[in-house]
Amino acid sequence: MKVLVIQTRYGIGDMLIFLPYLKAISQKTGVKVSILAKETSRASQLFKDENFLDEVIKLDGTNDKILGFSKLAKEIKNKNFDKVFIFNGSIRYRLLAFFSGIKEIYQYPFFISKDVIFQTAKVFTENYVNKILSTEPKLNLNPKSIEDAKKKYNLTNNVKNVVLGISASGPTKRWDIENFINLAIKLNKIQNCKFIIAASKKDQKIIDKIKNSEIGKNCFSLENLSIQEILPIIKNCDLYIGNDTGFMHISSALGIKSLGIFVDSPAYSYSGYSDNITAIVPVGETLESTTHDTLGKDKISFEEVFEKTKKYLIN
Q: Is the same domain home to 51 and 95?
């Protein structure tokens, strides 16, 4: 039997939120699953050391949207899948499954929108596997890669290794870089820390601000590394503190306590699935009220961030 899962959300965090359900489907069907996913989800790198995955079929500019439908349908049909699980309510993917000759089709209700991402996925998967599932993702890594990263980057137990998630998908979702710098300076006065700057090359200006600050000598940045290289580094860390980014979801899935600063994204949807994530929201907002267009980057309490960081970091 061959099983396909279609999960086409854009981000790394989205893909990790679906991890418990991918594993559950694989366990129930008794086979490794293939995933149709966007390259931006980094599924191939995230799940390299997992045993539930057969392959990742890339959804890109050549086979996506209406113009790529025929090409994608042919590609899927040639793989002879027996079952498909579609984690969205799109008619297009139902038609894709039909024209690809897949006999058993399981899919979200059509046109579902504004759902809580992890709750919808949980109910959908539980209806198939017929048991209660945890929403907590647990990402597996090769133990050797963890030990190698520890040695290579000198991630010792003599200091606290803290991931600073300064990146974000847009300026309205980003806590100001000066706040991160001041937080790192203040923390380092009470606890010897090494700060791992979690950001991409497009964030070079704010990366340089940290490197050129007085805390710069205590930092190194991940912008030139692949996700596969980054995973074992984060696994060796003690805490994540930063914006709602893929790095936060990676940290959580690796069992690292994570303080997520939510200023303009759905706080409950992207933190409520994991006990490892503590959400910090703008003053006057709640987990449920903080969402797109909250625009609360200037309403985050620095003292709340500092005190909660201390709580998790200081022994």
A: yes
